[in-house]
Design a protein that fits this description.
Blueprint (H helix, E strand, L loop, with lengths): L2 H12 L9 H8 L11 E5 L2 E14 L4 E12 L8 H15 L4 E5 L11 E2 L5 E3 L11 E5 L10 E4 L8 H8 L15
Parallel strand pairs: 3-4, 6-8
Antiparallel strand pairs: 1-2, 2-3, 2-8, 4-7, 5-7
Helix pairs in contact: 1-2
Length: about 190
């Protein structure tokens, strides 16, 4: 697989969407070498001789008062802008979720668009007393969702999900990594988080 092509796809897909610039391509770069990476759930879609879609999964954990439980998180996922709205993202997500279920992964988290992921069976994680690290459990967090394959694996108590530490990036490291790509201007937009 052309790792640089995947990283460029991810960079372009996320550029100025969530924040000025992007960090997701750097996360993808580091994730494939990280212990949390789930290689058999990482997939790409090729069309016309180039990679136009990509998805990753990794292990984070749910922290309870007295223990930690491994938990899978979907993302990043990217579809090339010229190939969006053609069902490729749906194919990637559906295929990999089916693989996750076959591998007896009891549930999958995602941090994403609350209007997009419910079509795949994701629902607000707070319904199950599960919350995303860094958010206020007293406030709605519709973008933190869970898809459950085996509800018996959920604990009946409050838990906080922590992404893999590879998701915590230093912006100076990101800027240094970014120098190998074509220059793109970082913009501050009202639509960003």
């Amino acid at each position: 697989m052309d790792y640089c092509e995947v990283e460029n796809l991810v960079r372009n897909s996320f550029w100025n969407i969530c924040r000025p610039g992007a960090v997701e391509h750097y996360i993808v770069h580091n994730l494939r070498k990280h212990e949390s990476f789930i290689a058999n759930l990482a997939h790409v879609i090729e069309k016309d001789g180039k990679i136009v879609g990509h998805i990753n999964y990794s292990y984070g954990f749910i922290g309870y008062d007295d223990e930690k439980t491994p938990a899978v998180v979907l993302g990043p996922i990217s579809i090339h802008e010229d190939y969006q709205n053609q069902g490729l993202g749906t194919k990637l997500i559906t295929c990999t979720l089916e693989l996750a279920e076959k591998e007896n992964i009891p549930f999958v988290f995602v941090v994403g668009d609350e209007n997009y992921y419910p079509r795949f069976g994701f629902e607000m994680a707070s319904k199950y007393n599960l919350y995303l690290e860094g958010t206020n459990p007293e406030e709605e967090c519709p973008f933190f969702m869970i898809k459950i394959f085996d509800e018996s694996e959920l604990k009946n108590k409050k838990g906080i999900f922590h992404n893999p530490d590879v998701f915590d990036v230093d912006m100076d490291d990101v800027d240094e990594f970014d120098r190998q790509f074509e220059f793109k201007e970082k913009l501050i937009l009202d639509s960003q988080l």
